[in-house]
Structures are given as C-alpha cells and as structure tokens.
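Much of what follows relies on a compact textual record of a protein's fold. An example makes this concrete, so a full record is given next.
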Amino acid sequence: MRIDRKTLLASAGATIAAVTVGARLSPARGADLLDALRSGQQPLIVGTDATFPPFEYTTAAGEKIGFDIDLVNAVAKKIGVKTVEFRQVPFGGLVPGLTAGHIDMAASAIYITAARQKVVDFTHPYFTGGLSVMVKPDDTATKSEQDLAGKHVAVQVGTKSVNWLKEHIPSAQLVIVQTNDQMFLSLQNGQADAVVTGYPAARYYIKTHGGAKMAPFLLTHEQYGYAFRKSDSGLTKAADEALAAFEKDGALKALETKWFGKSE
C-alpha cells in the first residue's frame, strides 16, 4: 500500500488548485447548473487526480481511464449530461477547487469524512474500502482479524497498516518492507503469512498478478463518494439516483469487477 496521497497533498491543495485548474469554468450554479448541463450549454467539469489505478490513471497517450472515469461517464449519461470534461487536479486541490467553482464535481477515490461533509456534499457511497488482508490461495485458516495473532504479517513502512496492527494485534510479527512489490513478494516467497494493505490496492494486485486471495473480512471500513458543492443539490441528487439505479441493476458491480476483479 502506497503512502496515502491524501495526507501528502492536503496541505498544499488550496494553493495548487487555483493555479492548476484555472479560472472559474461554469457560469451556471445551483438550480440552473443541471439544466445547463442537460442542454449542452456547458460541460460537466470533473476534477480528478488521475494517478491512482485502478480508480483513475493516465495512459501513455494521455487518456484518463479507470473505475471512477467509467462510472462518472455512466452517471452523466444516465442523468442526461451532454458533455463531460475531466481535469487533472492534485488530490489536495479537489475540495478547494470545487468550493471555489473551478470544477463541478470531484471524483478521485475520495473518502467520505465528517470534516469534508462540512464543506461539500457527497453522494451515497459507491465503493467501500479500508485495510484488508491478503493471504495465499490455499489459506483456509485466516477467517477473522484474530487469526493474525502470532503470524508474520507484511506491511509497508510508514502506512496506517503498521500502527493499526501494533494497536489491535500486538502479537502479530510485522515484516516491514519499503515497497509494495516487496510486500507482495514476501507473501509469495513464504516470508509472510499475510499482507495488510488497502482494499483497492489488494484487489487490483490480485487481478493483475494473481498468486494470492483476499481474506473474508476488512480490518477497517472507509467509504468513497463523489463530491459536489452544497449549492448544487439538484446535481448531487441526480447523481445519487443514478448510482442507486446502477447498484440495483448490477451495472455498478460489473464496473467494479472490470477494474478490480471478482470479489472473494
């Protein structure tokens, strides 16, 4: 699990947002914004930090792709938005850029937190993450967090996994490594019995590399949502209704499987 970009970039976000995103982009606001988007008078400007696969990342050709990109495009189509324009914004600049009116929507694997909810509105969660446990494909013994007691558990230095295990499973024998690759390799070569890392990163690694599986529980729970200005409640409500429809008809699950692989 990489060191959290959200922590690293937050302090510089407000300053960077204005420089990176540029001047105010959308003349319509509040009740008029959704009408303007549906009529094609202006595009939906979506801020995203496309450096976090598989949620959002940039190809060598400069194209932004990923789970969030596909889902936002699907939501926009569902609610009748004519044009979507994704803008690269450092993660720490997303909320400031949104409140300043430089973007209309923030979509970048954003945790829903009480502090953020004081400033912007979120959709209902579209993805649940948190700290997860990876084990070998033939492991049948790791059924709960207590099964990590006494086990060799690989973690990346400087991540929340280290402190969580020290606090909650003090008898776990930590195998602290420098990189993601070393962490995953330690499971494969037998140095570790399990890996503790972020749920999205774990599922993506298993999808792209194999050689491991998810344990059937999460250690922590963090929910992701799309952020909008509080004045744009109509747009937030429309996006929420689209996400609810996708959850009901299976489209949301299908996109999740496409980008993260099948859940255990």
